[in-house]
C-alpha cells in the first residue's frame, strides 16, 4: 500500500510539473507617478496634484510550436473598470488580436519627440484633434511578423464591426444596437518602414463606413518621419481629420490639419531635453444659405509649444514639461500655459 501511495505521489508530482511547464504566467506591471501641475487658461489658472492609478495585469503562454498567446487587462482612469483588454495570438505568420478599447495603430505620435512624452498627448494643455483611432472601438487586428516586408517594413490592419459597442465588454457580451450616427463599421491600416539606419517612416488611414445620410464619411490619415543619430533625434508628422461629415452646403464641413515637428537631445545617460511644436488648423467650409447667399469659410490656427526635460537618478525619473498654447482649443484669443513637475518609478 505504501508503494502504491508513493507511486501516486510521484505520478501526480510529474503531472503537476508538466502542466506548469505549459501553463501561462501572470504578472502585474505599471508605474508609480506623481505630478504637480500649474497653469491653464488665462481666465482659469489652477494648481493640482495627481498620483497615477494604472495597473496592467499580463498573462502569457505557449500554444504549440512557435505560437504563443498574450492577455492583458488594464485598470486605469478614475474607476476600476477593465476598460482596456486584449488577447493576442502570435507566431511565424504574424499576430492576430481581439481588442476592447485597445489597438491604436494610428501614426500620429510616430515622430516621437518628447523627453517626458510626445507633445500634447503628454500634458495638453489643449485638445489637438488628430482624428478618431481604432482603440475608441472594440476591434480585431492583424500585424505582420518582423522581416516579412522589405526595408524593415511592417503592416497593421484593424476592423471594428460595431461602432456603438461599449468599452469593458466581457466574454460573451452581446452586441450593442447600432445607431450608425458615425457608421456601422470602420477599418484602419498602418505601414512602417526603416529605409536606412536611424530613419523610420510610416503612414496610416482610417475610415468609417455605412453611416447615416451625410455628405462625407468620417476619416483620418497621418504620416511621420523620425531620424536618430547619436544623441540627437529629429521628428516630423502631419495628420488630417474629418469628423462625422456635415452637409457641406447648409452647415459647413469641418476638417483638421495638424503639423508637428521637434528635436530631442540626450545630454548624457541621465539627462534628456526636447522641444517641439504643433500647428493645428480647424477649417469650416463656406456655407450656402437656404435662401441664397454664401457665408465665407473660417480657419482657426492653433499653435502649441512644448519644452521638456527628464533626469534619471537611481530608480526614479524627474521630469519638467512646459506647454504654451495660443488659440487654444481652436478658440480665438484663448491662451493657455501649463508647467508640470513629475516624478516616476516603474515596476
Outline the structure in words.
This protein has helices at residues 2-22, 119-123; strands at residues 25-41, 46-51, 55-64, 67-75, 84-91, 94-100, 139-143, 154-160, 185-196, 199-209, 219-229, 232-242, 254-266, 271-284, 287-288, 294-295, 298-313, 316-326, 336-346. Strands 1-3-4-5-6-7-8-9-10-11-12-13-14-17-18-19 form a 16-stranded antiparallel β-barrel. Strand 1 and strand 2 (46-51) form a beta hairpin. It starts with a helix and ends with a strand. By secondary structure, the chain is mainly β. The chain has 2 helices and 19 strands.
Give a quick rundown of the structure.
The chain has 347 residues and is mainly β. It has two helices and 19 strands.
Could you report the average pLDDT, rounded to the nearest whole number? 83
| Mass-distribution shape | globular
Strand order of the largest sheet: 1-3-4-5-6-7-8-9-10-11-12-13-14-17-18-19
Unreliable runs: 1-21
DSSP helix fraction: under 10%
Structural category is mainly beta
- Ends apart, CA distance between termini: 50 Å
Count of alpha and pi helical runs: 2
Order of helices and strands: HEEEEEEHEEEEEEEEEEEEE
Annotation, overall tally of beta strands: 19
Main beta sheet strand tally, sense and closure? 16 strands, antiparallel, barrel
DSSP strand content:
over 45%
- Please give the radius of gyration in angstroms: 24 Å
Question: What characteristics describe this protein?
Answer:
globular; 347 residues; single chain; 7% helix; 16-stranded antiparallel beta barrel; two-stranded antiparallel sheet; disordered N terminus
Amino acid at each position: 500500500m505504501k508503494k502504491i501511495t508513493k507511486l501516486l505521489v510521484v505520478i501526480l508530482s510529474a503531472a503537476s510539473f508538466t502542466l506548469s511547464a505549459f501553463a501561462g504566467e501572470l504578472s502585474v506591471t505599471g508605474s508609480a507617478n506623481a505630478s504637480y501641475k500649474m497653469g491653464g487658461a488665462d481666465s482659469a489658472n489652477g494648481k493640482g496634484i495627481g498620483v497615477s492609478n494604472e495597473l496592467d495585469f499580463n498573462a502569457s503562454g505557449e500554444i504549440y510550436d512557435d505560437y504563443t498567446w498574450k492577455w492583458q487587462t488594464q485598470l486605469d482612469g478614475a474607476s476600476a473598470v477593465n476598460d482596456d483588454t486584449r488577447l493576442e495570438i502570435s507566431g511565424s505568420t504574424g499576430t492576430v488580436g481581439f481588442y476592447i478599447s485597445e489597438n491604436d495603430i494610428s501614426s500620429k505620435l510616430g515622430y516621437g519627440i518628447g523627453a517626458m512624452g510626445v507633445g500634447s498627448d503628454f500634458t495638453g494643455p489643449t485638445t489637438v484633434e488628430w482624428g478618431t483611432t481604432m482603440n475608441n472601438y472594440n476591434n480585431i487586428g492583424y500585424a505582420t511578423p518582423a522581416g516579412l516586408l522589405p526595408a524593415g517594413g511592417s503592416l497593421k490592419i484593424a476592423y471594428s464591426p460595431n461602432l456603438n459597442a461599449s468599452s469593458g465588454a466581457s466574454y460573451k457580451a452581446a452586441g450593442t444596437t447600432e445607431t450608425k450616427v458615425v457608421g456601422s463599421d470602420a477599418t484602419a491600416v498602418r505601414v512602417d518602414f526603416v529605409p536606412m539606419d536611424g530613419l523610420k517612416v510610416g503612414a496610416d488611414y482610417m475610415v468609417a463606413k455605412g453611416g447615416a445620410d451625410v455628405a462625407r464619411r468620417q476619416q483620418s490619415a497621418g504620416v511621420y518621419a523620425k531620424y536618430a543619430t547619436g544623441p540627437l533625434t529629429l521628428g516630423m508628422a502631419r495628420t488630417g481629420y474629418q469628423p462625422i461629415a456635415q452637409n457641406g452646403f447648409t452647415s459647413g464641413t469641418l476638417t483638421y490639419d495638424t503639423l508637428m515637428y521637434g528635436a530631442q537631445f540626450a545630454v548624457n545617460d541621465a539627462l534628456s531635453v526636447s522641444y517641439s511644436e504643433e500647428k493645428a488648423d480647424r477649417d469650416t467650409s463656406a456655407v450656402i444659405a437656404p435662401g441664397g447667399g454664401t457665408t465665407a469659410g473660417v480657419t482657426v490656427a492653433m499653435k502649441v509649444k512644448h519644452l521638456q526635460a527628464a533626469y534619471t537618478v537611481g530608480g526614479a525619473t524627474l521630469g519638467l514639461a512646459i506647454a504654451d498654447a495660443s488659440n487654444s482649443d481652436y478658440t480665438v484669443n484663448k491662451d493657455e500655459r501649463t508647467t508640470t513637475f513629475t516624478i516616476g518609478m516603474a515596476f
